[in-house]
Amino acid sequence: MQEPFDIEIGPINYSVFPEGNDSYTIFKDGREYIQIQKDTSSIWLKMDYKTELPIFEEDEEVNAIGQAIEKYVPEEDNEEDEL
């Protein structure tokens, strides 16, 4: 499974925790903020906390976070350089 990582959208930093199956828990300002899941190639959905079902309404912030997740490239470990 992918390790947690940070993304930045404008002045806001988000911490992204992959949950598997194209779903992610997002933290904002050090607090759990939302859970999102990829729906189609360009649409991301916010998940309802109580039912854990997707909320089918378009949300610009959720889509921006999803697009930043797709663009994220993990940094390679340079353990060999440290030896």
Number of domains: 1
Order of helices and strands: EEEEEEHH
- Cα(first) to Cα(last) distance is 26 Å
Would you tell me the overall average pLDDT?
Answer: 89
Describe this entry's structure for a reader.
This protein has 83 residues and is α+β, with helices and mostly antiparallel strands. The protein has one domain (5-71). It has helices spanning 60-71, 79-82, and strands at residues 5-9, 12-20, 23-28, 31-38, 44-47, 54-55. A six-stranded antiparallel beta sheet has the order 1-2-3-4-5-6. A hairpin with a 2-residue loop joins β2 (12-20) and β3. It is globular and about 35 Å long. The mean pLDDT is 89.
List keywords for this structure.
83 residues; alpha+beta; 6-stranded antiparallel β-sheet; 2 helices; 19% helix
Furnish the topology, listing elements before pairings.
Elements: E1 5-9, E2 12-20, E3 23-28, E4 31-38, E5 44-47, E6 54-55, H1 60-71, H2 79-82
Q: In a nutshell, what does this entry contain?
A:
The chain has two helices and six strands, in the order E-E-E-E-E-E-H-H.
